[in-house]
Amino acid sequence: MSMRKTLLFFFSVCWSVAVIAESSPDLGEIATVDFLEQGRYDVFPDGEGLPQGSGNATQGEAVYNQHCQTCHGLKGEGGSAEELAGAMHGLTDNPPDKTIGTYWPYATTLFDFIRRSMPLSAPGSLTDDQLYAVTAYLLYINHIIKNEDEISAKTLPRITMPNHEGFINVFDGQE
Q1: pLDDT confidence of residue 18
Q2: Mind listing the pLDDT tens digit for each residue in 56-93?
Q3: Contact 57, 159 (CB under 8 A)
Q4: Which of 72, 86, 134, 175 has the fewest CB atoms within 10 Å distance of its CB?
Q5: Number of continuous H segments (helices) and E segments (strands) in the chain
Q6: What per-residue confidence (pLDDT) applies to 31?
Q7: Distance between CA atoms of 59 and 147, rounded to whole angstroms?
Q8: Do residues 106 and 156 lie in contact, with contact meaning Cβ atoms separated by under 8 Å?
Q9: pTM to 2 decimals?
Q10: Which residues, other chains included, contact 96 with Cβ-Cβ below 8 Å and sequence gap of 6+?
């Protein structure tokens, strides 16, 4: 009887999948193995999970101009997507400016975000060197690093962001 239930379940799942696939609105694309693999890598604030590679702001400006400027504007000052640099106000001002320099607590999180979701038209398409370079450029235009500073898995976690202490740890000292 158990084998019969297993087969019945198997065929009902197959039929359900076939019906769903047949009635799909054809939105998006089927996720490739490479696309799914890119989501398997986590980068932590201490730098654990950062890949090999390096880059600086000069290299990153070219990457930014090619892949980011269309949405984020000239030098990250905003366009159809949020501004990334050029804040005129802090987070507590009215209106607040939520840029990389005023908001992000860790440079490694910035790298991880770009790696997973940018450019919007082709997430995960940048090489590790391009990712380090564009991260360096974004840190540079937010006055966090110098133009010639090279970032890598070794140096990126050492960068202290201006808003590093700006978040409240609600779990600190609580059970």
Answers
A1: 46
A2: 999 999 999 999 999 999 999 999 999 999 998 888 88
A3: no
A4: 175
A5: 7, 2
A6: 72
A7: 10
A8: no
A9: 0.77
A10: 89, 90, 102
Residue labelled with tokens 């978040």: 167
- 140 burial type by CB count under 10 A (0-12 exposed, 13-18 middle, 19+ buried): buried
Give the H or E element holding residue 152. strand 150-152
In angstroms, rounded to a whole number, what is the distance separating the alpha carbons of residues 61 and 75? 9
H or E stretch covering 56: strand 54-56
Strand partners, 56: 150
Helices 128-141, 57-67: crossing angle, 10 deg rounding: 100
**Residue that the structure tokens 């500073």 belong to:** 149
Structure tokens at 131: 């990712």
Alpha-carbon span 15 to 5, nearest angstrom: 15
- The pLDDT > 90 percentage for the chain reads 62
Under a CB-based contact definition with an 8 Å cutoff, are residues 119 and 67 in contact?
A: yes
CATH of domain 29-158: 1.10.760.10
Mean local confidence (pLDDT), 108-116? 95
- Percentage, residues of the chain above pLDDT 70: 77
pLDDT exceeds cutoff 90 at 11: no
Torsion from C-alpha of 57, 58, 59, 64, nearest 10 degrees: 70
